[in-house]
Every structure is written in structure tokens, then in C-alpha cells.
Amino acid sequence: MNNKLYTQFVGSCSLVLFAFLGYVVRFYPGWIQPFDQFITNGIRSLYPTWTPFFLWITKFANPSTMVILFLALLFVLLYGKRYAEAAWFSLGIIGIAGIFNPLIKLLFMRERPTLEHLVTEHSYSFPSGHSTGSMVLYGTLIFLIALFIQNRYLKLGLQIILGSCILLIGISRVYLGVHFPSDIIGGFSLGLGWLLLSYPYYQKQRFIWRFKNKQL
């Protein structure tokens, strides 16, 4: 119960942060400009040395990559009769990253930075779709990886790699000039809020399905 309350508390805080950032971005964008400028200057100071790396890492959250990984992982889960996991995973990718994030961009209508764009983007800026998508996809894997790997050190190592991938994808979007840092934080907080608030319900559904299967 304590773990559930802690998870839901952190998830709620993530969504509050997202709502706060959205409010500021929509009505008082000048408030957050110094923060965005400071972080952007630090990341862009790596230009152009790190361009090949960030062009590569950002592809791990491109829509085409997300679709391929989603379908592949969904097949693995369904093949292994992990129906609760498949449902939770699908709701996050399709519902949050695929539908909700693009729609909510229309509410905030934030234009992208005026920096040189190293990749082509056409939608609005807040929240970052790459950040939301990577948090939902790779964040779900961080939770589910324990189902497939029992070795403690290997599991921890893979979770660290996945967490680092999420962070680097966010940084890449600022480096490539298509997002403000607050867009990235907004996308991360939206995705993390979904994961942490829905995780206890996924666990409950998983228990129910496993119990029914044992009875059968």
C-alpha cells in the first residue's frame, strides 16, 4: 500500500508539473524564457561536434521507430499471453503518445524555437512528442523488464540504459533546435505521470487475470 501511495503521489506531482508548465507556456511565456534560454545555450554549446550522435539518438523516438518497436513488443507480450501488460502498454503508446499528446499541442499552440532546425518538424512545440513517447515506451519497458530478466545486475543495467536513452532523446530535441527545454520537461512529466498513476491499476489487472487463468 505504501508503494502504491508513493507511486501515485509522484505521478500526481508529475501531472501537476505538466499542468503548471502548460499554464505558463500558454499565458505567461516570458516567465520561462530565461530558463529555456539558459539550458538551450548550454546544450547548444556542444554544436556541431555532437550533431551525428544526437541525430542518431533522436531516431529512437521517431514515429516510425515507435510504431515498429510497439508492434514488435506487443507481439512478444501477446505471444507470451501477457495480456495485462499488452493492454497497459497499448493504452500508453496509442492513447497518451499517439492521440493525447498531438491533440494537446493544439491547446497550447506553442511555436518552435527560432534556432536553426537540424531536423524537420511541422507540429507545435509543447509538449514534446518525442519526450512523451520515449518516456511511455522505454519507461514501460523499465517496469516490465523484471518479468523477463531475473538477474539483478543485468536487469539494473538495462534499466539504466533505458533511462539514459529517455534523457538523451530529450536533450537531442533541444540540441537539434526543435524544442525548448520546457517542452521536454512537459513531455517527460506527462509520460511519467501516466506511467506512475496507471501502474498500480495495471498490477491489479495483472493479478486478476493471473488468478482467473489459474482457476481455468
From TrEMBL:
Positions of the Phosphatidic acid phosphatase type 2/haloperoxidase domain: 91-199
Keyword Membrane among record annotations: yes
Keywords: Membrane, Transmembrane, Transmembrane helix
InterPro entries cross-referenced by the UniProt entry: PAP2/HPO, PAP2/HPO_sf
TM annotation in the entry: 9-28, 53-79, 86-108, 128-149, 156-178, 184-202
Gene3D superfamilies the UniProt entry points to: Phosphatidic acid phosphatase type 2/haloperoxidase
One Pfam family per UniProt: PAP2
Protein name as it appears in the record: Undecaprenyl-diphosphatase
Species in which this protein is naturally found: Candidatus Enterococcus lowellii
